[in-house]
Write a structure and sequence with these properties.
Four copies of one chain form a homotetramer. Chain A is of the alpha+beta class. Chain A has a single domain, classed as Chorismate synthase, AroC fold, CATH 3.60.150.10. Chain A contains nine helices and 18 strands. In chain A, the strands form six sheets. The first copy, chain A, has a five-stranded antiparallel sheet with strand order 1-2-3-7-4, covered by helices on one side. Chain A is globular, with a radius of gyration of 21 Å. Strand 11 of chain A pairs antiparallel with strand 11 of chain B, so a sheet runs across the interface. Chains A, B, C, D: Keywords: Amino-acid biosynthesis, Aromatic amino acid biosynthesis, FAD, Flavoprotein, FMN, Lyase, NADP. Chains A, B, C, D: One of its GO terms (molecular function) is FMN binding.
Amino acid sequence: MSSSFGQVFRIHTYGESHGGGVGVIIDGCPARVPLTEAEIQRELDRRRPGQSEIVTPRKEADTAEILSGLHDGITLGTPISILVRNTDQRPGSYDEMAVKYRPSHADYTYDAKYGIRAPSGGGRASARETIGRVAAAAVARQVLDQIHPGIEILAWVKTIQHLEAKVDPSTVTAADIESNIVRTGDPEMVEPMIEHIKTIRSQGNSVGGVVECVIRNCPAGLGEPIFDKLEADLAKAMLSLPATKGFEIGSGFAGTLLTGAEHNDPFRNIDGKIRTTSNRSGGVQGGISNGEDIVFRVAFKPTATIMTSQETVTNQGENTELQGKGRHDACVLPRAVPIVEAMATLVLTDHLLRQRATSL
Amino acid sequence: MSSSFGQVFRIHTYGESHGGGVGVIIDGCPARVPLTEAEIQRELDRRRPGQSEIVTPRKEADTAEILSGLHDGITLGTPISILVRNTDQRPGSYDEMAVKYRPSHADYTYDAKYGIRAPSGGGRASARETIGRVAAAAVARQVLDQIHPGIEILAWVKTIQHLEAKVDPSTVTAADIESNIVRTGDPEMVEPMIEHIKTIRSQGNSVGGVVECVIRNCPAGLGEPIFDKLEADLAKAMLSLPATKGFEIGSGFAGTLLTGAEHNDPFRNIDGKIRTTSNRSGGVQGGISNGEDIVFRVAFKPTATIMTSQETVTNQGENTELQGKGRHDACVLPRAVPIVEAMATLVLTDHLLRQRATSL
Amino acid sequence: MSSSFGQVFRIHTYGESHGGGVGVIIDGCPARVPLTEAEIQRELDRRRPGQSEIVTPRKEADTAEILSGLHDGITLGTPISILVRNTDQRPGSYDEMAVKYRPSHADYTYDAKYGIRAPSGGGRASARETIGRVAAAAVARQVLDQIHPGIEILAWVKTIQHLEAKVDPSTVTAADIESNIVRTGDPEMVEPMIEHIKTIRSQGNSVGGVVECVIRNCPAGLGEPIFDKLEADLAKAMLSLPATKGFEIGSGFAGTLLTGAEHNDPFRNIDGKIRTTSNRSGGVQGGISNGEDIVFRVAFKPTATIMTSQETVTNQGENTELQGKGRHDACVLPRAVPIVEAMATLVLTDHLLRQRATSL
Amino acid sequence: MSSSFGQVFRIHTYGESHGGGVGVIIDGCPARVPLTEAEIQRELDRRRPGQSEIVTPRKEADTAEILSGLHDGITLGTPISILVRNTDQRPGSYDEMAVKYRPSHADYTYDAKYGIRAPSGGGRASARETIGRVAAAAVARQVLDQIHPGIEILAWVKTIQHLEAKVDPSTVTAADIESNIVRTGDPEMVEPMIEHIKTIRSQGNSVGGVVECVIRNCPAGLGEPIFDKLEADLAKAMLSLPATKGFEIGSGFAGTLLTGAEHNDPFRNIDGKIRTTSNRSGGVQGGISNGEDIVFRVAFKPTATIMTSQETVTNQGENTELQGKGRHDACVLPRAVPIVEAMATLVLTDHLLRQRATSL
């Protein structure tokens, strides 16, 4: 197990889907940062099941309690411990899954690794684990507001299966994204995406897609070569999320179709600042931010839980079939948006604090 | 700076392209592993400039010297320090670049971060830095041979710009790949790719592409949830390489076009073992290896150094032009292959040792 | 802040004395280790206030709740989160201390470092923080019982001020130590020590002393040169405890009075095993255990809180006096014994798991 | 192996006494710090064998070469690699020691841990390993001079066996200490100590003693509770040095003989600053510096190598005798002084940089 992330602004998460609760300790948060439970709760509510008609109807209030590190609404510089109790537990729903491995879930691999697993609700591999990340990122956001208030971190649904939104990373707003339950920035695609999710769900099937994220007004100079390059830490952050299969920054995989003459970003003096006139680098060069928008994309596979019968084996290795049931997202993308933002916020906050350590 | 990678099998690299040398310390290598400088040299030679007619003609012997950690050809369990002296230095070639920022290089961002940079040859951001990684991975390979001798780690050129090789990850051999200077596993694409690189080079331009990699015979159970998932550490490893813009595992970005019913990998008992009958997961589920082939792809952008004139600015922010010169790869892909293998080897070795720590 | 300890068996603590609670996350605990809350509670009860007539009468039930990482009494390999709620809070008792710095406490330095502090009960600097360590060590003890069941870790009160107990580290038993409320291993010193503590307390004064600790049946080979030598990690562990001022192992400071000829431990073959005939090394040579008893001592200063008037300053820097009050230990030594054992257990468990990682 | 030390200003050492060389990589050094090899060499010369008539006459030039991280005498912010070649190797002198375990050396424990060891000169356990630490600390000193130029770090020989120097930590100067080859700050004890070392050496015997160290003008607020308290990191640093058996800070073990009323350090406003009128805390309270002098002591055992015959065993477990020979220090204290200063400098520099990371 390795449930820690970050070097200076460092978080430690814990919890299974159906145990006493899930939570996080944040170590390395600066002192004297204003913080309320409401700021944490607002982000947890964006991640929460049951928030709209296109996500899982499970009822999880996900109420955050701050156990430590805060005094009269101000951080103490000591570890901030945040606990979210588990409530809507139905262990009974999972009896069959204790025996049969759900295809493309982590049941088999947890057994292979640990020789034991929490059989209900996915245990530690449940997406419920991301609550701690989102809560920690809400704290990180308050830190950013203290030391670099202008930084904006926005994610949105770029594609759902074959449906692609047209979104300009340099101008899209939080209001644009939050104005619709699918959390895409393209008004034209809201209805098609919602309808597609509903159709897929009615078939007991599922879909995935791509979340795109931009970090705007990021100062130049963040990222720690060689191994902790900014894009390397972002890639790790995103691939540590459940259901992710890919990460690309700037031109990404499509950039391999260009020649160097087409791909390079020319530098120009614009209004007295050194800028690039294109941004195929995606805001990072040599692992360090260059002051342009940081733009990256994350691929989420279709939800592994589907409502049809699938071939699988038991934990004794016998061939069998599994009929999916329960209350699951047919498409995780709308709820993945705040989680992608959360991980980007954690990476950026950590790198901002790291940069301060060694600046003369 | 953060020039360390790995948790148990942990490496620390150092060195600029035109200083005293580049190298690596490996800390956490088990004792009593047979090791020779020849094994390290063989891998360095695969990475080396001047090895074929399609790579940079720079003459860098890249001779490895083991300074510590070895006694009579056996590792001591103490840090292994490997030094490669710099030899073919032509600081004069870089005078102009001390003043003008090369587009899509790290010149500007290093200045933005550190307020200083080694002006010649890219300094720390030079691909020469990867020598330490390749040398360390050659040691890691010896460790694997002691504790899991069957593990195979092979990479190859999957695409160069629009040219795509057909390679079966489950059967391709090292001999297939090493049989041609472009290091692709598809005999049909060898000549087209070589010709394309030569044509592009003759135009003073450059191209990128995709390297694909497979890890075969990996035991199930490797990878440390939550944050050190196997794919997360692989993604970080790959995005820490110069010129990389994307990473995907298994079905990757294309997997987002499938439904869950199409994407899930059914489990079956095959010859008494639990296997999946498809491998869209790419050998990893829930961050843990499932015993199937681990398959991933890495996007490399076209080389930033091109031989034509480009718009840029000076380090004083004045608009100017830069005429490329020097001896550079028009396509880094053939030399990237051993580097991708090296990073995969480092990740896997580290996770194998981590898994031993907590297994009862 | 840095509230993490250990490399493989790694703990993260949190909590102030008068907030929502204190607790710990254990990351890196092997899976399939039997564990109950009762095993944790037993150690917390040894540490607890109010357990005897010579410790603080504060009523803190210190009831442990395991929030995660456990299923049906067996560890899952996932993070184990343990929470102890705060109950007996009397913030009113501390009003004066919010303004006046208690001499030789951490009030002033926390303000100097963080610009803020939890004013009541010592906040994060309270000895209440050690609850998380003791709970984590109770888990570590179960791990030891699985992989090296014979290892014994025992501490006792060696001195209280000028009173010194005669204890043979190679034969003293847990029963000897627990048979008396002062937790010394010398029956002759029980009454004198108890009487001395009572006398000092009646004077509103306090005393310190030395805790001695032995690790018996430790396998040879533990400890990681160069910086993570076993004695280095033990020293750090002990000096991280509140009120500690010194650490020595084996011959310690007194060993500096001997010559090399007197101090060296001769090796002999005893019953077919390589042993030393004396143990001035204290069971560690070159940072690595040699299989002999590991013996060390820790100095605890007299409790800083006393019931008489002392000169001090306000947080505005004005000279003033502070009259001590509240319910405090006149001597922390009896309650320090289980905490010293806890830290030794954590160090040893971590090093045992580290050693497994790189053993072929 | 764990050859890394520090969190932000982080060093990695390597090398055996009789291999290709010993050295260090410093990662996390700020950019734009002036640095020359001469500054490193000056400290290495203080540590070097053969520097006076009372230390080992071995001839080791210990010439430092900076391989990376420096450009025109200014640090680049990239890893600084420093190499010191081994020269005066006499493997022949050590043939017997390849078979017979030297008492109170690390020969046996390295074999127990690794199953192999470098047989000549102590290998990795040789005090020669401290070269990397001293070189790194010379770099750290330049960093301190940039960000806190007034900090003074001075160590001296406090005792040699029963001979004790009278030194006032608040006033002793570097010139006082360097004025005599024994490196004590008490002029009265120079001759007695030198004579005692010579006498002991003439007997083929050895002695140890205590090094005392002061850090003056340290700002308040350094040290990271809970586990990385300043005294905890100092204790670890010192106990990681060869031949150390104890560490105490401020009142130390003697402080346990005082009552709380005697031991507490009263706060007073002195010249507008919050100060303590005594310093039994040793400059650290609650793990954080309080702005007073940080004073600590380190116990060094008598040198294990003596020139008389000792009982021991072979690596096959047979009883035998070993006749010491070679060129060794009869007393390491004079050469330990710069090494203690080096470790204190590394701890302080790291904590200064850590504090900057999270200060708003």
